[in-house]
Amino acid sequence: MSKQLRIDFVSDVSCPWCAIGLKSLEQALERVAPDVTAEIHFQPFELNPDMGPEGQDIVEHITEKYGASLEQQIESREMIRRRGEEVGFTFDMARRGRIYNTFDAHRLLHWAASQGRQHALKLALLEAYFTHCEDPSSRALLVRVAGQVGLDTAEAARILETGEYADEVRESQLFFQRAGIRSVPAVVINQRHLISGGQPPEVFERVLREIAAQSDAPLM
């Protein structure tokens, strides 16, 4: 009989390593199926909670936040592009010029979970930002992407206009911050095992098999 795991994937849609980590995790789950299955819950984390609505030039932002030189940033972008290519995710690093606030995206993702479309929306938002270089803080973009993954666009627009799920997103963020999550992606399995960073599929596969072999993983 297969073992089912709970996975809380703590991440931000403006985090390139979160896109890499998610695609790696998906590949690992394909490798361990059908012996191991998982229910993925996407949890919110804002890399830049104080970012203004206009966003910020990404080179300027990374220089200010991390002290990285332009040469270091170019080298990092190329490494990210290659890692994405390895797991089947396309980064258009040349066109992505700004970084944005993602709070509204997290509100929409919270709602999408109740509609059974959270995973699809998460992937679509990552692709909108990193592959198509679109603004994930734009409500027009969020509504359009919601419709593309089968969500009700009128309801998505209403949620964004009313501020619904803001409290729930903040509560979730606070919960994982209090649990010690300071960087993403953070992959929490069965609410007790943590895998940090955009690991290769082989790492996720090994850990998934090890945890599934333990007695705390329920049989299906």
In a few lines, what is going on in this structure?
InterPro entries: DSBA-like_thioredoxin_dom, Thioredoxin-like_sf. The chain is an alpha+beta fold and 220 residues long. The chain is 51% helix and 14% strand.
How is this structure best described in words?
It contains nine helices and six strands, in the order βαββααβαααααββα. With 220 residues, it is α+β, with helices and mostly antiparallel strands. The longest helix has 17 residues, at 16-32. The model has no long low-confidence stretch (mean pLDDT 95).
SSE topology:
Layout: E1 3-11, H1 16-32, E2 36-44, E3 56-57, H2 58-66, H3 70-86, E4 98-99, H4 103-114, H5 118-130, H6 139-148, H7 153-162, H8 166-178, E5 186-189, E6 193-196, H9 201-212
Helix pairs in contact: 1-9, 4-5, 5-6, 6-7
